[in-house]
Amino acid sequence: MLSNERIIKNDERAIFTLRSLYSKYGYSQFKMSRFEEYDLYVKNKDFLVSDEVITFTDRNGRLMALKPDVTLSIIKNSIDKKNTVQKVYYNENVYRVSKGTHSFKEIMQAGLECIGDLHSYDIAEVVLLAVKSLALISDSYVLDISHMGLVAAILDSSGLSHDGKAKAHACLHQKNAHELYAICKEEGVDKANTKKLCALVENCADVKTVLSAVAPLLDKDKEKEAFEELSTLCSIIEHSGYSSHVTLDFSVGNDMKYYSGVVFKGYIQGIPTSILSGGQYDKLLKKMGRTSGAIGFALYLDLLEQLDFDGNDYDIDTVLLYSEDTAPLELTKAVDELSKEGSVLVCTKKPKSISCRKVMKLTKEGLTLEDNG
Question: Which domains does the chain have, with CATH numbers?
């Protein structure tokens, strides 16, 4: 029986296209159980989007959890070995508190993780796959990129106290240049370092503009090293033809206890919040006793239900009607022809629950356009 939902929902369409994309780059599918030992999440609760987790006790007395996150499980099952890189993608349901309803929700999440002895190319490949993932979903998209290593290096060399750094980082996240300037003044930060910090807030634009504005202000080795990593990544993005869809925005940031390098968020026109989030989280692996590096991202596919995936409100392009005495071969020929223009649903009577661009009818005289009321 046909329902009022689309025949193929937006998140399902996205999964098909994304799976093909990731496979082309050598990523293999990671499958996991719905359950994980609760202890894994307790030890790393700050890394989670929400620290509220659904728990239960299994028959062996272990406290288990419905997984609120995929990344931690992938790390747990990865190999920590030098000169080894593991590339996996996934589409899994996670269970966490929804921002909108403040109640637990089953959320379809897709993404990938690259874990191991990472090089510059591995980092760039993941960021490019994030851009390409957005491009597969919509023509109107943007990826905002920052670099936690550069932000941390500038904060460390600023002369701010520990509390001052925390406040300054909050100002950066809020794009509050006025408050940031006040903090620097209060703590006696010199003019050069104040200008450097404020430049991170004031510059949010295309890649070339931001890099040109920030580069002359950097005077410490760690700052220059992180800047060089970011510049290399941006040159690869430009070479790949995606620079017009990328913005450098240092307000994009994740917990500095876990993230050490490039971080990014992806947006699509028609959805008011980020649909993609990712970054380099070497510090998390170190906290978990690993020597490997890691970078990945997640796509929140449940948000796609807010988006008109095809740019229209139709379930199907063409409904093709036929009578019982219609020859199967003639029906097949008609479907072949109509499918060149889009999707086709063949039936003897148009279902009331299905919307379509047009209704065609196949008779002995050929195809005729019917009333679509």
Answer: 10-157+220-306 (3.30.930.10), 316-370 (no CATH)
